[in-house]
């Protein structure tokens, strides 16, 4: 009995430590800023421009990730084939690659001197120093977050449902769209939220691959860094806004799909 | 079974706390007890190669250096970072910190010049070529010294030429090393950097000199941080930046000018 109580106290202590450590820095951003300064910073056109760019590029990246990632994850989750676990590992690799490495890697692959650089140039596409390059960087770093969740969500579906749908005459495409995707929705939504958060916070890969230019490639995190040296309060204020936006995304996702959304498989 | 998990958790938690405490303790030991101790230097990005060479004249691992844009380093010190020495690519940031009472009186220890750097195979051959439409130019952000020096150079050009060059700027990088990186990668066509950067990028970049009439006064300031953890070693490190010290030799070797 006492032993059990001791363990309970220990878990409470651990939770308290985790909560304080994880929330204190975020709270400090707000207490250091003050609501007046926060509103001031929002009225600064350059800050709004950076936030707007961040929203636009992250939504564009999410659209690509969802459209390509959902069927890809479905295949990986529902079919067993040679090289499947290798494919999953490769997809997850960008999760553990440092952002700066991601930036260098993107330059080496898609930059003007990269292995696909010539082909991209011939196609008339410009990525480096362009908003499109930011979208590429965000897609690269954020996609694995969505894919992982989507694979788990599809894997958790009862195969007999999909089977039933097919025996009832629905083709595989229809089964995917009308049975698999709606049933896996909580997992897909939580993957979207994670990927969106990662995309909004992206810094290193964007700076290295796309550069930093206000209105074109300077997303909110880059704008925060640009202000860090000269105007710390402005950097704090912009950080506060970014925390608020990210928090709003997390909250709306939770409300949208119920509390199960962020529990992955819905366990 | 449950008990075992509980015990494992307990062990992990204890280990984590022990590790954290050991980490703090270790830090205190190195700064306090040991004789020579170590020195933490915050230095401008453009000093990286030179200061790395200079640090070799000290015993192994005695000099810990952190390189970034001078503005970033100044902001870190302003927010409580406590290195022993702050070496910036201008005199403005050390002066600001001096006025705020955060560092001792700064001294100018080196000069430098700005240059246009282009990838080795580039066809760009003069500052006039930078005004051609479609030329991708990277510069430092205006908060970092190399960026404000670049704006000085551009400010001395005729208005039309200045505007044409400014219109070609595709990225404002947070430190000079990032400008150099974009050029070496071939991502950009030209950039404004220090002469010393092209020297240390051995062969990958070529330089297009900026006429003397356009050159800004590039002066590097160094200051010992107030209440530096290791003041005697800090003094020794700073003194070595002036002739005939090993730091001064490294600076001259890398192409930095002597202080005026």
DSSP, total strands of chain A? 0
Any idea what the shape of chain B is?
globular
Q: Uncertain spans of chain A, ≥5 residues at pLDDT below 50?
A: 259-267
Quick one: how many beta strands of chain B? Answer: 10
* Class per helix and strand makeup of chain B: alpha/beta
Mean of residue pLDDT of chain B?
Answer: 86
**SSE sequence of chain B, one letter per element:** HEHEHEHEEEHHEHEHEEHH
Strand content of chain A: under 5%
General shape of chain A? globular
Report the structural category of chain A: mainly alpha
Query: Can you give the mean pLDDT of chain A?
Result: 87
Number of helices of chain B: 10
Q: Beta-sheet strand percentage of chain B? A: 15-25%
The pair of chains with the biggest contact is: A-B, 28 and 31 residues
Could you walk me through the main structural features you see in this protein, from its secondary elements to its overall organization?
- The complex is a heterodimer of chains A (267) and B (260).
- Chain A is an all-alpha fold and 267 residues long.
- Helices cover 79% and strands 0% of the residues of chain A.
- Chain A contains 13 helices and no strands.
- Chain A is globular, with a radius of gyration of 21 Å.
- Chain B has 260 residues and is of the alpha/beta class.
- Chain B is built from ten helices and ten strands.
- Chain B has helices spanning 2-32, 48-55, 70-78, 92-99, 145-155, 159-167, 176-184, 195-200, 231-239, 246-254; strands at 39-44, 63-68, 85-88, 107-112, 114-119, 137-140, 169-173, 190-194, 205-209, 218-224.
- In chain B, strands 2-1-3-10-4 form a five-stranded mixed β-sheet, with helices on both faces.
- In chain B, helix 2 links the parallel strand 1 and strand 2 (63-68).
- Chain B is globular, with a radius of gyration of 22 Å.
- Chain A binds chain B through residues 3, 7, 10-11, 13-14, 107, 111-113, 128-129, 207-208, 211-214, 216-218, 225-230, 232, and chain B through 3, 6, 9-10, 13, 69-72, 74-75, 78-79, 136, 138, 141, 143-144, 169-174, 178, 181-182, 185-188.
């Amino acid at each position: 009995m006492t032993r059990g109580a001791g363990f309970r106290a220990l878990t409470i202590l651990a939770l308290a430590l985790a909560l304080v450590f994880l929330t204190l820095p975020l709270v400090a951003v707000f207490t250091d800023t003050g609501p007046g300064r926060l509103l001031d910073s929002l009225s600064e056109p350059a800050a709004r421009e950076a936030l707007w760019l961040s929203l636009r590029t992250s939504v564009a990246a999410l659209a690509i990730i969802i459209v390509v990632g959902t069927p890809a994850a479905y295949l990986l989750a529902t079919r067993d084939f040679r090289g499947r676990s290798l494919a999953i590992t490769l997809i997850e690799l960008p999760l553990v690659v440092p952002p700066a490495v991601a930036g260098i890697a993107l330059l080496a692959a898609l930059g003007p001197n990269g292995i696909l650089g010539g082909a991209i140039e011939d196609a008339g596409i410009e990525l480096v120093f362009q908003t499109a390059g930011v979208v590429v960087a965000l897609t690269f770093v954020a996609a694995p977050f969505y894919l992982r969740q989507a694979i788990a969500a599809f894997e958790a579906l009862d195969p007999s449902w999909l089977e039933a749908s097919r025996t009832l005459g629905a083709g595989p495409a229809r089964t995917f769209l009308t049975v698999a995707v709606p049933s896996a929705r909580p997992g897909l939504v939580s993957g979207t939220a994670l990927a969106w958060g990662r995309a909004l916070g992206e810094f290193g890969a964007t700076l290295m691959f796309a550069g930093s230019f206000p209105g074109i490639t300077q997303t909110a995190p880059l704008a925060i860094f640009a202000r860090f040296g000269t105007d710390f309060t402005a950097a704090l204020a912009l950080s506060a806004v970014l925390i608020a936006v990210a928090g709003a995304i997390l909250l709306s996702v939770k409300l949208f799909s119920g509390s199960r959304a962020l529990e992955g498989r819905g366990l | 079974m449950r008990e075992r998990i509980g015990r494992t958790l307990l062990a992990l938690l204890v280990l984590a706390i022990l590790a954290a405490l050991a980490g703090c303790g270790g830090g205190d030991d190195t700064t306090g007890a040991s004789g020579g101790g170590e020195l933490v230097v915050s230095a401008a990005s453009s000093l990286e190669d030179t200061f790395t060479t200079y640090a070799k004249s000290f015993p192994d691992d005695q000099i810990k250096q952190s390189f970034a844009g001078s503005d970033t380093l100044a902001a870190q010190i302003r927010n409580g970072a406590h290195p022993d020495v702050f070496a910036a690519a201008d005199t403005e940031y050390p002066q600001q910190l001096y006025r705020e009472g955060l560092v001792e009186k700064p001294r100018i220890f080196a000069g430098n010049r700005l240059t246009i750097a282009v990838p080795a195979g580039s066809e760009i051959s003069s500052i006039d070529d930078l005004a051609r439409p479609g030329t991708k130019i990277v510069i430092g952000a205006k908060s970092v010294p190399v960026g404000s020096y670049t704006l000085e150079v551009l400010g001395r050009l005729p208005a039309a030429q200045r505007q044409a060059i400014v219109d070609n700027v595709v990225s404002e990088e947070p430190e000079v090393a990032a400008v150099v990186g974009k050029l070496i990668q071939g991502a950009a066509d030209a950039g404004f950097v220090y002469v010393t950067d092209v020297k240390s990028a051995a062969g990958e970049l070529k330089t297009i000199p900026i006429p003397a009439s356009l050159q800004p006064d590039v002066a590097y300031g160094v200051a010992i941080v107030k209440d530096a953890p290791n003041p005697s070693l800090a003094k020794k490190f700073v003194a070595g930046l002036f002739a005939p010290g090993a730091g001064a030799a490294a600076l001259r070797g890398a192409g930095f000018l002597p202080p005026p």
